[in-house]
Amino acid sequence: MEGFRDASSDLLLDIARPSRHDVVLDYACGVGMAALALAGVVGQVQAVDELADALDEGRRLAAELGMDAVDFLRADLYALPFDDGAFTLVVCQAALHRLPEPVAALTEMARVTSPGGRLVVLDAVVDAVTDEAFNDLSRLREPGHRRYYGADGLAALAGEAGLSVAERRTERRTVDLDYWLQAAAVPAQTADLVRRRLREMTPSVHERLDLAFADDLVSFSYDVLALRLER
Description:
alpha/beta
């Protein structure tokens, strides 16, 4: 069966290069967008998170799509219930920014990655211009957001976890502001605050985010970094 695809899927599949023989873990899976994308390529995916509501939504979405190749499991992300080297492919998509201990998380991901396996991390990244502004905006959108890192900072976290970068890719992503807010179920009052804060940002931030206004529509762009890591 074809896997579920969203804007992140092509980059994920391209750098992870999954095969039918892979044993896969989607770490801090949320509703399982990465797991559902991979499920059409690999045999079975374990999708783990600590967020019960997100896991329930992932199960609902998988059932709606008629996909039974994803097993959603609630687990302690820093003490996974899996043996060392249990997975040939571990992915963590759009999640590291909400984890309070990213190095410990990467270390635990590395523990369950088999020798010669691949560990793939994807997340939005910031630079010196957008760091404070985009992180503040993201905390309003997603209360559980901790921080987006710079590209070199994210690679440095991997190094602290004893991992080396085997491959690194960056993709520019453009989103509609209303869609970005609706995808996180942002309340109307908070959404209005986000719109106001976005307009009040400095010209240099507007330029770096490619902020565009067209009638009532607002769009902006940011970079997504994909790292393929090795032990």
